[in-house]
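Show me any protein, fold above all:
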Amino acid sequence: MSLKDTPIHQSYADGDVIITEGIMSNNAYVVLKGSVRITKKIDKKIVSVGTLKEGDVFGEMGLISQSVRSANISAIGDVTVGVIDKETFEGVMDNLPEDLKPIILSLVERLKITTQLLTRIGLELETTRNKINSYTLKEKE
C-alpha cells in the first residue's frame, strides 16, 4: 500500500492545527494537497522549523516510537492529508524482515535528535537576528 493511497483523508483550512506538540497520537500523515508549517515551542517562543509540501510525510515519529508529538503542524492555505493509522502501519511493519525494524527505529530516533538540533539553531538564529536589528536601529539614531 502506498502512503498516498490511504483510505482516510482529512481537510484543513489555513491556520488549522493538524498536530499539537506534546500530545500523544498514533497517526502519521501524508500531505496530499497544499503545504503545512512545522513549529516548535522553545522557552515560550514559537520557532519555525520548516515547511512540508505535497507528498511529504509527518507524524511518523509518534506512530513508530509511540512518543508525544515533537512539534506543531498547521495548514498553510487549504490542505488535505491522508491518515496512516497505527493498525495499518503495524500491518505493513509485520511484513518487513525482522532485520529492518531496528534500522527504522534508529532512523526515527536520529530524526528526533535532528529536529531538536534544528529547533535550537532556529532559536539561536532568531535571537542573533534580533540583536543585529537592535544594533542597527541604535546606529541609525
